[in-house]
Please model this.
Amino acid sequence: MTITTCIFDAYGTLFDVSSAARAAAAEPGREALAKVWPILSENWRRKQLEYTWLRAVMGAHCDFWQVTQDGLDWAMEAAGLSDTTLRDRLLQLYRELAAYPEVSGVLSALKARGLATAILSNGSPAMLADAARSAGIVSLLDDMLSVESVGVFKPHTRVYALVTERFSCRPDEILFVSSNGWDAAGAAAFGFVTAWVNRAGLPMDRLPARPHYILTDLTPIPDLVSS
Model:
């Protein structure tokens, strides 16, 4: 089956989730953050994801902005930071995350080849709109699909079904790209062709399905689709 549609996870795939803490740590007066920002950023992201999974299991859904704040609060407490001004600044920067350098070029190449492109994310619609606008990629996307439409986080099958419903296509006509191995595995189990962007060189998750391709960044995606 020919791939007609390329779907991207947002956070960690298109947008660099470390860029908020890194940018704040470089600002004057942020010496305390500068000492701990890598571990704070790592903990922030880890707790953010853990809270999505736990809330899905508990049936206690909230939007991704709430779990983003909750994850930051945990990470700041773990780092011994209690500065409310810093908290506000980190959250502001999270709405303006930097895109990875290759993102615009990859999306442009896909559009030039006639493929549909979209985001499928845990992020709330407002968060995704802010990030895409800040990164300058709104015009390169046909849609930004949020789990808020179904009220449960990834990797629930209802989330992946949003794509086939929106683009009226079969799962095997879709290339789904994520930096999260568990997300790529969940999408593969649903029937998508999947690519895991394993920027950190992590081991494969032990899950029922596995991604079809493993990449170190997004650069190969247009050629992958053409092949």
